[in-house]
Amino acid sequence: MDTYLWIFLAVKLFATTFSYVWDLHIDFGFFNEGGKFSRKLRAKDKMLYPRWFYIFAIFANFIMRYIWIIFLFENYFKFYKDKVDFGKSFKVQYLVLTLIEACRRLLWVILRIENEQLNNFENYREMLMIPPMNDENFEHEINTLKNIIHI
Questions:
Q1: C-alpha span between 129 and 131 (Å, rounded)
Q2: SS3 state at 32
Q3: What is the pLDDT of residue 48?
Q4: Number of folded domains in the chain?
Q5: Under 8 Å between Cβ of 43 and 124
Q6: Which domain holds residue 25?
Q7: Is the pTM of this model over 0.90?
Q8: Which residues pair with 19 in a beta bridge?
Q9: How many CA atoms lie within 13 A of 151 on its CB side?
Q10: Nearest Cα to 108, choosing from 66, 70, 58, 63?
Q11: What is the distance between the alpha carbons of residues 65 and 15, in angstroms, rounded to a whole number?
């Protein structure tokens, strides 16, 4: 194989692995207890879904993150065996990869929102209402800014 392909694969594998670990630990809140790494999946009081759903999510996220390897090598070997047919086969593969990525992101959204809901105990990411805009205050602020910058 080509040296550049191996470099590409190494970087892509590192990036995919980093993203996978980030999803589990930071975004989903798995194996995270008090900001430190833990062997527990999650505390029972912080599980809104059955335990099997979280285990399924871990494996499904892994498979859906690394599925690109199969398609990469299949097309790579077709290319080097002079059986270049990137017509319908490639379009079907692209469609399948796109649908898999959409499913992975849907799963990510469900678990990310759940994690935010459960762990936003500091309320520093919470805004209950957007304050209404008061025209008098706005005009006063504009005039104050104009006086400061001397317009």
A1: 6
A2: strand
A3: 81
A4: 1
A5: no
A6: 3-149
A7: no
A8: none
A9: 6
A10: 58
A11: 10
